Amino acid sequence: MSKRVRIKTILEGDYLGKDITVKGWVRTFRSNRFIALSDGSIIHTLQIVVDFENFDEQLLKRITTGAAIVAQGKIVESQGRGQHFEMHADSIEILGDSDPDKYPLQPKRHSMEFLRDIAHLRFRTNTFGAVFRIRHALAYAIHKFFNDKGFVYIHSPIITGSDAEGAGEMFQVTTLDLANPPKDENGQVDFREDFFKKETNLTVSGQLEAELGALALGDVYTFGPTFRAENSNTSRHLAEFWMIEPEMAFYDLEDNMDLCEEMLKYLIQYVMDHCRSDLEFLDQRRANEEKSKPQNLRSPMGLLETLQFCVDNDFVRITYTEAIHILKNSKPNKKKKFEFVIEDWGADLQSEHERYLVEKHFKKPVILSDYPKEIKAFYMRQNEDGKTVAAMDVLFPGIGEMVGGSQREERLDNLIQRMKEMDIPEEEMEWFLDTRRFGTCEHAGYGLGFERMMLFVTGMTNIRDVIPFPRYPGSAEF
Ligand code: 4AD
Ligand code: MG
């Protein structure tokens, strides 16, 4: 049998009149005559027309939803609506049966919760096919963006001995026997007997290692999995998520914002240019979802429209102080509609505040900068006012925080003093401080949450549905 041709290639190519072979999985088989075949290469199925008179009845019975088949025949112009081409089958062979009474995926609408429970099979649905093709394209676009700009991709470690964010919500890594751990003179667990001879954890961020790279290679980025044991059971948090962390020598905060805005627009444009049919499907899917919502909760724009809007418009840039002013005077704050009412300067912004700013007030992506130092990490550059640091968060409609970053504190004394104030032991950070001792310079960087970006470009509403096998409190299946 000739080599198989992918359905995407057939639908986009010049195969009319040609005799070819396709392989894939049956989505539906109507009237004992029309097979909708998917092979995952594109959202669309190929219609295969079967003259049932010429086929064995036993074989036809085995063409069921989910079965893997190989079909061979001629590509002809389609008589039906909805597709240009179809295959007129000369032969069909079953590669793998799928018992219709047991196969969990039927050609009907399944809930996202149900599909999450069968995440091993959900790749086979239209929605997840589209989502994961886009996930691939987005990952590729990230590498392309940075590669084209001359950045060096750094693989930061996954097991580390440091807590980059100082957040303390880490997954511990150990080979010690938890039921019977070795103890030291003081009765404490003796980590000198552990695999690494010290306490280790899964990384929460590759930033500190990226800084080491940037202060030698200039422009670098990481793109890898990061782990947080925060007990956030929300539609925006995962315990294992992927982060992109560029770090640039000789960049100040404004350079950092410029790069970040350019990157986000590039990524959105890339997906629009390369994932058209998947986006159209998801656009339609979201439009249907919106119809079931009350009028006042519907999004003003469709998915494709939202993406285009973000590419076409400058992001708003304001300081934290300006944001607090807007929020304090906002209707929901005055009417105490926010769960956390903003009283004073210094308050940490919750996602309800971030979303008010982007969705209600500005109706655009917003870059907030210069936050109070108390609510930000130790490594951020201290501003002249003594109160704020050169931090930036990028907020997106429907998402909230998409990116967090800052200009870094490059002055050794300031950094050490801030670490003291925040109880970060200097002796554990000597390697980091060495960059400030030898050839320190202005530098900046940020972290993009890959799945938050995926939520935005796909219009999906739960972060658990944009990563193949989500990890969250109480769940580590597959
Ligand atoms: O704001 P965060 O915590 O910043 C850092 O980790 C810095 N070291 C980044 C840097 O400057 N290099 O996290 C960065 C981004 C957030 O804006 C968010 O998009 C995403 O990572 N993020 C999460 N995504 C999914 N689940 C979680 N639990 C996340 N926590 C953060
Ligand atoms: Mg943050």
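The pocket of 4AD (ligand 1) is lined by residues 164-165, 205, 207, 228, 237-238, 241, 243, 245, 401-406, 445-447, 449, 451-452 (CB under 6 Å).
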